[in-house]
């Protein structure tokens, strides 16, 4: 591990000036956003270009000892990782036309069950290109089912809200859960919290669009700052903010894809 000496003290967001003696670099979480994970005086902390968040070592005893997710270039590599890990049961939240499900099943032959969770329905308070009218949603659903026919013995469909479908799954059921449904802060946060218990210990949760509002959606005319309940995400952190907050709450390292030009993917191990 690489040793780095900073100055004698540094300002930490929400804490103030604290002494920094020797910081041990453990792992680069996301080069794009300049995030790293450090050990500071035996307490792990995350340092970004904007702030430093110190995590309480007592409340995160497994943070440094657990096995993280292998690095991956892009989200399609996750299928190879699932195969190499010997995983067999997965779920995808937000399926749309089924292109990603097709790619995952093609690269994950050991998969025995792949659950497709999607409303395939128009939603209020969702300013996303995928939120088309109901007639088009039905056509998209039919297209997805046709595309995934080669794996008809493996796929299980729950056409409903993610927060309704989750009630049908036992805790610890899935090896892999891919979160790509709504992209507003509250929507993502709800999905992460609801499906985390459904993931086996050692399983992998991942998702797409690890961005803030300004990173991508705004440039394309989408507005993910409107939450599902009509409230506004004034931070503008949307998906990235929800993932970071949840990862910190469960003391997990976030691994981010390193070869996607935009709309990066993320993953964490339970």
Automatic annotation (TrEMBL):
Q: Where are the transmembrane segments?
A: 12-35
Keyword annotations for this protein? Answer: Membrane, Transmembrane, Transmembrane helix
Keyword Protease part of the UniProt annotation: no
The superkingdom of the source organism is Eukaryota
Q: Does the keyword Transmembrane apply?
A: yes
Name of this chain's protein:
Methyltransferase domain-containing protein
Report the source organism: Stephanodiscus triporus
């Amino acid at each position: 591990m690489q040793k780095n000496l900073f100055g004698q003290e540094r300002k930490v967001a929400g804490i103030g000036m604290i002494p920094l003696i020797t910081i041990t670099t453990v792992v680069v979480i996301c080069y794009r956003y300049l995030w790293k994970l450090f050990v500071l005086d035996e307490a792990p902390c995350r340092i970004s270009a904007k702030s430093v968040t110190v995590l309480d070592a007592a409340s995160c005893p497994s943070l440094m000892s657990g096995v993280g997710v292998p690095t991956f270039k892009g989200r399609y590599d996750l299928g190879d990782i699932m195969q190499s890990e010997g995983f067999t049961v997965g779920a995808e939240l937000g399926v749309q036309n089924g292109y990603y499900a097709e790619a995952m099943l093609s690269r994950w032959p050991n998969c025995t069950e792949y659950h497709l969770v999607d409303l395939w329905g128009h939603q209020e308070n969702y300013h996303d290109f995928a939120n088309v009218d109901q007639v088009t949603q039905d056509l998209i659903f039919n297209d997805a089912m046709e595309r995934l026919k080669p794996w008809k013995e493996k796929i299980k469909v729950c056409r409903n809200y993610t927060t309704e479908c989750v009630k049908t799954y036992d805790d610890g059921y899935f090896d892999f859960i891919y979160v790509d449904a709504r992209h507003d802060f509250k929507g993502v946060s709800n999905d992460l919290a609801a499906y985390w218990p459904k993931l086996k210990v050692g399983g992998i949760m991942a998702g797409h669009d690890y961005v803030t509002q300004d990173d991508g959606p705004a440039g394309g005319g989408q507005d993910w700052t409107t939450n599902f309940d009509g409230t506004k995400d004034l931070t503008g952190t949307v998906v990235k903010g929800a993932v970071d907050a949840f990862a910190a709450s469960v003391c997990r390292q976030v691994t981010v894809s390193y070869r996607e030009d935009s709309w990066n993917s993320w993953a964490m191990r339970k």
